[in-house]
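DM from R.C. (forwarded with permission)

"hey, sorry to bug you on a friday — could you get me a structure for this? deadline for the figure draft is monday and I only need the backbone to look sensible"
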Amino acid sequence: MNFDVDRNRNLSYTEHMGKDPMSMDGREFVELLHQNPVIAAVKDWDGLAKCLESECQVVFILFGTVLNIADTAARVKAAGKLAMIHVDLVDGLAARDVAVEFIATQTQADGIISTRQNLVRRAKALGLLCVQRFFVLDSMALVTIQRQHAAEATDAIEILPGALFKVIRKLCGEIGKPIIAGGLISDKEDIVGALDAGAVAISSTNQDVWFM
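My reply, with the result:
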């Protein structure tokens, strides 16, 4: 993967950090994203198998149930990649703190993704990495992001769709959190555009993007 950005050296996170990834803090997580700006976002078993063959070092797990999410995270970790579980999308988990506690104690996940600020706060308290996801549907969504960005809980903010380069540039200039661009990223031009606008990384379910 070469997107004409100096930061992309494509190191594995174990090589990059030289230590147990479970001890990775938010600063080191963002540094890893700078070095490996393409995140594989997987939504099914086929995507999981494919992402394990890719050079992507961070995996967003966007599917699963309470019965199989631990095994899914274990497969990602066994492949030498960082596993981030979208806790809102795990079937059988409620939108309460106990869901995050389950992820922290019953899986090998490095962190969570969620649209819910309370879950992000709880995950951070438990030592998990955190990404808070926002859907930028209108100007009110921007106000919400600007109002919530000051919370220290989240390590990065993911905005969808990720092809809104003017929005990315605006948010990068106004908030103090790293931005991940997700959704509607389909080719190299989208990746470069998002990174040039200031995003630290992109996430995509498009398997072709993982192998660019």
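R.C.: lifesaver. The CA atoms of residues 112 and 201 lie 16 Å apart.
me: no worries. The radius of gyration is 16 Å.
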